[in-house]
């Protein structure tokens, strides 16, 4: 884990965040807004323009409001106020989302957070800096700092912080450097996903087509675009817009124009849960700590809730060092951090269970079993209490 790099001559900040995606940027904003000297190291030289994650659930919007960007994103996004389930063209259930889920392309969310970070801490985001591991003071709690080893333009650099936060994704190099075990589960499900011009009459509704060949999901995006997600028998190794459009029309009867495709992706599902979110002075958040199925769109919001939980603790600790405070509160912080980390791990495990149930409901079924299951759903969702419970589960209320 260590490299023998000495701490002399190392660039220093109060908090070093590795990963400039939506979660790392959000934490950077929350810390900078508290007056913390923060740097965000991002390996990508440019922001991806793919829509990728699109769902912002109500608690995520709360965190983004604290970051000062919620209103900007609400003005740019589409509020999903309703969910509909259909099968063979017939309605199975209808749910109201109150408060709604906001649909915004990930690139726009990142752009908005990046602009906010630049307002609060100009130059805090450093692109093209690829973290490769931890230095001598990192991870084991030695000294009072952690050190990130990184490549910047082909040269190795070392960046130290009172805290290092790994927001560097599901295959987190920093998590690997720390040797934190990961519980991993590979699901049998595969999906083909794409964004196309919206030619449906569904407006701001999210729609689930529960079909015998497998689920077809669709969600509105800004600019008259709709995302389609189709369950497939196996991973599509050569996905095309034409293939996705054909699957949609075969299962739902709805036409999709492949010429309007702006994003296409084929993927399988892997669930990962790190055994710990804290090791020495390194904190794991977002996918580095817990990767859940993208079906249900809860992963990004989970990461923002991590940022919300840890930002005040990191800031308070940094201030204690900065101003030389000695108090009972300082003694209690390690236990408090551990308690927050365990709470976040429990929340991730719950989200993973919900995602697993969502995937199970979308798998192929023989037509007779599908019809019987849908009949049960129609009966259940006639009860307001069931509709309300399901709506809350799909929209992550806390």
TrEMBL record:
One of its GO terms (molecular function) is monooxygenase activity. Keywords: Monooxygenase, Oxidoreductase. It comes from Sinomonas terrae. Residues 14-319 form the FAD-binding domain. The keyword Oxidoreductase applies. This is FAD-dependent monooxygenase. It comes from the Bacteria. SUPFAM superfamilies: FAD/NAD(P)-binding domain. InterPro entries: FAD-bd, FAD/NAD-bd_sf, PheA/TfdB_FAD_monoxygenase.
């Amino acid at each position: 884990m260590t490299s023998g790099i000495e701490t002399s001559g190392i660039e220093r900040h109060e908090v070093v965040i590795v990963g400039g995606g939506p979660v790392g940027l959000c934490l950077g904003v929350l810390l900078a807004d508290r007056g913390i000297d923060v740097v965000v190291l991002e390996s990508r030289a440019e922001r991806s323009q793919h829509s990728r994650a699109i769902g912002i659930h109500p608690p995520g919007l709360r965190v983004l409001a604290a970051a000062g960007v919620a209103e900007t994103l609400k003005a740019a996004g589409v509020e999903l106020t309703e969910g509909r389930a259909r099968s063979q063209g017939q309605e199975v259930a209808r749910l109201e989302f109150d408060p709604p889920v906001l649909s915004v392309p990930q690139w726009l969310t990142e752009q908005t957070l990046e602009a906010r970070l630049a307002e609060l801490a100009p130059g805090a985001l450093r692109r093209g800096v690829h973290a490769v591991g931890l230095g001598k003071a990192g991870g084991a709690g030695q000294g009072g700092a952690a050190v990130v080893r990184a490549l910047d333009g082909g040269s190795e650099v070392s960046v130290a912080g009172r805290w290092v936060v790994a927001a560097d994704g599901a295959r987190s190099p920093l998590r690997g450097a720390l040797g934190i075990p990961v519980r991993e589960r590979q699901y049998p499900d595969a999906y083909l996903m794409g964004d196309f011009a919206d030619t449906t009459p569904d407006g701001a509704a999210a729609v689930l087509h529960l079909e015998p060949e497998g689920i077809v999901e669709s969600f509105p995006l800004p600019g008259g675009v709709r995302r389609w997600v189709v369950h497939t028998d196996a991973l599509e190794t050569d996905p095309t817009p034409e293939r996705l459009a054909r699957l949609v029309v075969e299962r739902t009867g709805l036409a999709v124009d492949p010429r309007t495709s702006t994003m296409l992706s084929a993927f399988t599902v892997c669930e990962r849960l790190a055994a710990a979110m804290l090791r020495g002075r390194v904190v794991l958040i977002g996918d580095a700590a817990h990767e859940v199925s993208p079906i249900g769109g809860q992963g990004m919001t989970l990461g923002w809730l991590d940022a919300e939980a840890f930002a005040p603790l990191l800031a308070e600790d940094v201030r204690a060092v900065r101003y030389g405070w000695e108090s009972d509160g300082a003694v209690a912080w390690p236990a408090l951090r551990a308690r927050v980390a365990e709470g976040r791990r429990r929340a991730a495990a719950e989200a993973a269970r919900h995602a697993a149930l969502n995937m199970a409901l979308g798998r192929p079924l023989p037509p007779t079993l599908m019809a019987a299951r849908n009949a049960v759903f129609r009966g259940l969702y006639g009860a307001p209490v069931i509709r309300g419970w399901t709506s809350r589960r799909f929209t992550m209320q806390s």
